[in-house]
C-alpha cells in the first residue's frame, strides 16, 4: 500500500490506509465530496493512473476501483498501484466480488446489494471474502447498495429488482433497514450509463430518513444533475461513465459544483 504520513519519505496526506471512513466523516463536515469511479478492465494499469491524476487535478476526493464484469485481482492491483504512484488520493475498492480484492487498496466498500433476488449479492459473496479481507488488513466500510431504475448492467449482473423511480417509500424503507443493520454508507445507484440520475425527490426523501453517509451514482453527466442531487442532500457523488465516454475534462463542471459547496475545515 501507499506510504502513509509518518513513514520516512512519505508525503503528508489528509488520510491514511485503515482510517478512510474517519477521514470521510471529517471531510463530510465541510460539505459534499466527489469520487471518480474507474473500471480497471477499461482503464488498466497506467491508464488508470493518468485518469486519476487528471481527476485529482480537477478536485475529485477519492478513486473508486471496480466494474461489473472482467475484474481480476491482478487488474485491480495494477490499477491501484498506478493510481497511488500518480496521485495522493485514497483508493477504495468498489467490489464486483471476491475477485476484486487487492492489498494495494486503502479500503473496501463492504456492500450488500439490498434489493437483489440472489443471496450471492446480498450476503454470500461477503461471507466468502470476509476472512480474506481481514487477513489482508484492508479497512472494510459497510455499505447498503440499492439499485434504482433502470439499473443498467449492474442491476442485471446483480439480479436486482430495481426500485421504481417514483417509489420513494420503498427506497426509504431499504435505506432505513440498511441503517438499522449498521451500514455506514447508503448508495443509491441508477446504473453506469443510465439515461438519468436517481430522482432528486427520492434522494431528498432518503436524506430525511437516515443519517448515514448518502452516496449517489449513475447517470450524472451535467453540472445541473450534480446541483439537483446535492441540493437534495447527497453527501458523495460518484461519476464513472462520463470519464470513459467523454474524457476527464467532462468531470470539470461536475466536480466544480461539488467543490463550490464546500467550506473551509473548522
Plain-language structure description:
It is a single chain. With 266 residues, the chain is α/β, with parallel strands linked by helices. It has one domain (20-259): TIM Barrel (Alpha-Beta Barrel). Helix content is 41%, strand content 16%. It is built from ten helices and eight strands. The chain has helices spanning 20-28, 45-58, 73-86, 119-136, 152-157, 168-180, 200-209, 223-232, 241-246, 251-259; strands at residues 33-38, 62-65, 91-93, 107-113, 139-147, 185-189, 213-217, 236-239. An eight-stranded parallel barrel has the order 1-2-3-4-5-6-7-8, surrounded by eight helices. α6 (168-180) runs parallel beside α7 (200-209). Residues 1-11 have low confidence and may be disordered.
Note the main attributes of this structure.
alpha/beta; 16% strand; 8 strands; TIM Barrel; 8-stranded parallel barrel
Amino acid at each position: 500500500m501507499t506510504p502513509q504520513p509518518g513513514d520516512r519519505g512519505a508525503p503528508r496526506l489528509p488520510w491514511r490506509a485503515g482510517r478512510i471512513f474517519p477521514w470521510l466523516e471529517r471531510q463530510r463536515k465541510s460539505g459534499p465530496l466527489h469520487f471518480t469511479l474507474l473500471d480497471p478492465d477499461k482503464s488498466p494499469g497506467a491508464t488508470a493512473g493518468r485518469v486519476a491524476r487528471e481527476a485529482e487535478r480537477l478536485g475529485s476526493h477519492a478513486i473508486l476501483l471496480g466494474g461489473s464484469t472482467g475484474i481480476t485481482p491482478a487488474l485491480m492491483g495494477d490499477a491501484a498501484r498506478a493510481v497511488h504512484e500518480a496521485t495522493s488520493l485514497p483508493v477504495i475498492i468498489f467490489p464486483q466480488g471476491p475477485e476484486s480484492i487487492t492489498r494495494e487498496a486503502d479500503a473496501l466498500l463492504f456492500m450488500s446489494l439490498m434489493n437483489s433476488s440472489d443471496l450471492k449479492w446480498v450476503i454470500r459473496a461477503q461471507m466468502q471474502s470476509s476472512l480474506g479481507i481481514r487477513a489482508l488488513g484492508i479497512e472494510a466500510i459497510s455499505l447498503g447498495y440499492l439499485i434504482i431504475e433502470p439499473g443498467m448492467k449492474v442491476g442485471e449482473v446483480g439480479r436486482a429488482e430495481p426500485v421504481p423511480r417514483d417509489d420513494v417509500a420503498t427506497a426509504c424503507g431499504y435505506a432505513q433497514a440498511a441503517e438499522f443493520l449498521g451500514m455506514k454508507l447508503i448508495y443509491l445507484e441508477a446504473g453506469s450509463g443510465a439515461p438519468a440520475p436517481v430522482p432528486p425527490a427520492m434522494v431528498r426523501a432518503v436524506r430525511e430518513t437516515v443519517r448515514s453517509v448518502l452516496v449517489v451514482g449513475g447517470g450524472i453527466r451535467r453540472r445541473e444533475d450534480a446541483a439537483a442531487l446535492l441540493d437534495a442532500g447527497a453527501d458523495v457523488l460518484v461519476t464513472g461513465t462520463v470519464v470513459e465516454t467523454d474524457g476527464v475534462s467532462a468531470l470539470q463542471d461536475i466536480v466544480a459544483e461539488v467543490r463550490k459547496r464546500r467550506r473551509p475545515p473548522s
